[in-house]
Design brief:
Shape: globular
Order of helices and strands: HHHHHHEEHHHHHHHHHHHHHHH
Low-confidence stretches: none
Mean pLDDT: 85
Strand content: under 5%
Structural class: mainly alpha
């Protein structure tokens, strides 16, 4: 038996399937989801009376009022509001904040950043609705653990076979997209960055990441909450400070950068020239798609964390959830974009992570590669924790507590495999399943929009009884 021939055939088939899945994924994202998600955001912005503007200050007060690196330990009754937000941000702020931003700039020009901002602005209203409905319909499993997420408000919206099907479809898509394939993608980003910066073998990085992840997974919600409340503020501080230093060092380019962003949003060729071939439609498409993919508003992932926050009213967590989108897009993604634009790294021809490394090297020299690698580790590892947790909630829903350890073991294996074997098929399938899980979530959100408005107004904001 010629093992090399068999391997070559498998690689060929994988590449062919990857192409087919990429076509399907691009179609779903470019022709359906960016419109559905933005329209959903506009819908909830209007129905909730521009809640992201009127309640933004309250969200900030609740965030900083609950800020604590060593908060009260989470339990089966849930976690603190800040811990829930930290877990949500852990998932939101991932490799997409570096590589996704780079892709948007290269493919959509500087104007893509404007459309990222616009999508995030409307997405803040969507995630508010997700959070308050997740709070409203949270429940307890057979072991007394508080659980929640889209599957529970999907079942509440459609109390029939259709609702059961939608909830099951959502759960399976999320487990595949985030728990398994998504975490392979994240571990690959970590190992690739460390190999480039330090020459560390990818399998060694993968085994270390998997071991640390397994330790956190086995500690349950208590350990997950404890880790995210510490790692998220730390990674945010490191990246924000490191980015601001680069931007300030290139302060003369800041005014021109903002001119290019706003001008490029509506007339890209005036900024890039006709040879670039980027149109307003492409600036909008890449900006909106990459922005929503990063902040996850409307995708049904972060409600799993917000559902188990211990708050007095659903609205209390809703306003905090909005701040997560703001931090992800208006702070982290924007800083990434400004670093790349003010340093003129986008003209270097580099793409993805290499574009970020080029930008940071312009000031930090060879340390720029190490800085990006360290940030990629924090971003991707925190996402692994968040996505594992979201998948776990759906495993509980489908199979019960008994399946959680098996699920954790599979995720750990995926982390190891993903670190040393980059398969385009896995990346494309992660994108595809990440996209299709949006549809059942948004269908339920719209169906329950009347209830969301009543909760928002305080007319029906009771929480489930313990």
């Amino acid at each position: 038996m010629d093992l090399d021939l068999i391997w070559d055939n498998l690689v060929t088939v994988s590449d062919q399937l990857a192409g087919v899945v990429k076509i399907a994924s691009d179609f779903v994202w470019d022709n359906i989801l960016i419109y559905v998600l933005v329209l959903g955001g506009i819908f909830f912005t209007v129905r909730l009376g521009f809640v992201q503007v009127r309640k933004f200050g309250e969200g900030c007060r609740r965030l900083f009022g609950g800020f604590n690196l060593f908060g009260k330990k989470a339990s089966k009754d849930g976690m603190s509001s800040f811990q829930a937000l930290a877990t949500a941000i852990a998932a939101q702020v991932g490799t997409g904040n570096i590589t996704g931003c780079a892709t948007a700039l290269v493919s959509g020009g500087p104007g893509a950043i404007f459309w990222m901002w616009l999508a995030a602005f409307f997405g803040m209203a969507t995630i508010y609705a997700e959070a308050i409905l997740a709070q409203r319909f949270k429940t307890k499993d057979e072991n007394g653990h508080v659980v929640g997420g889209p599957v529970y408000y999907i079942r509440a919206a459609f109390q029939n076979r259709f609702g059961k099907f939608l909830a099951g479809f959502f759960s399976v898509a999320l487990i595949l997209a985030l728990g398994f394939m998504g975490n392979m993608v994240q571990s690959n980003s970590i190992s690739d960055a460390f190999y480039t910066a330090f020459g560390i073998p990818k399998i060694a990085v993968g085994l270390i990441v998997a071991a640390v992840a397994a330790f956190i997974f086995l500690g349950g919600v208590k350990r997950i909450a404890s880790v995210t409340e510490k790692i998220v503020p730390l990674m945010a501080a490191i990246y924000i400070v490191g980015s601001l230093i680069v931007i300030i060092a290139n302060w003369r380019n800041i005014p021109a950068t903002f001119v290019h962003i706003f001008q490029g949003a509506f007339n890209p060729q005036a900024v890039l020239g006709g040879a670039a071939g980027i149109t307003m439609r492409e600036a909008m498409r890449y900006g909106v798609a990459r922005g929503l993919f990063s902040n996850e508003a409307g995708m049904g992932s972060t409600p799993h964390a917000h559902a188990i926050a211990k708050v007095d009213k659903p609205q209390d967590q809703g306003v905090v959830a909005m701040i997560g989108v703001f931090i992800d897009t208006f702070i982290v993604l924007t800083l990434t974009a400004l670093v790349m634009l003010t340093t003129n790294a986008v003209d270097s021809g580099a793409q993805g992570t290499a574009l970020a490394q080029t930008a940071f090297r312009s000031l930090y020299g060879s340390f720029g590669n190490a800085f990006v690698a360290i940030c990629m580790f924090f971003f991707a590892f925190s996402t692994i924790i968040g996505w594992y947790f979201f998948g776990e909630q759906n495993v509980r829903y489908l199979f019960g507590q008994k399946a959680v350890k098996a699920y954790a073991a599979i995720v750990v294996v995926c982390v190891v495999i993903g670190s040393c074997l980059k398969l385009d098929l896995v990346w494309n399938m992660a994108d595809f399943f990440n996209g299709i899980m949006v549809l059942p979530n948004l269908i339920a959100l719209v169906a329950l929009s009347g209830l969301a408005v009543r909760i928002h107004k305080g007319e029906d904001d009771r929480l489930p009884q313990p």
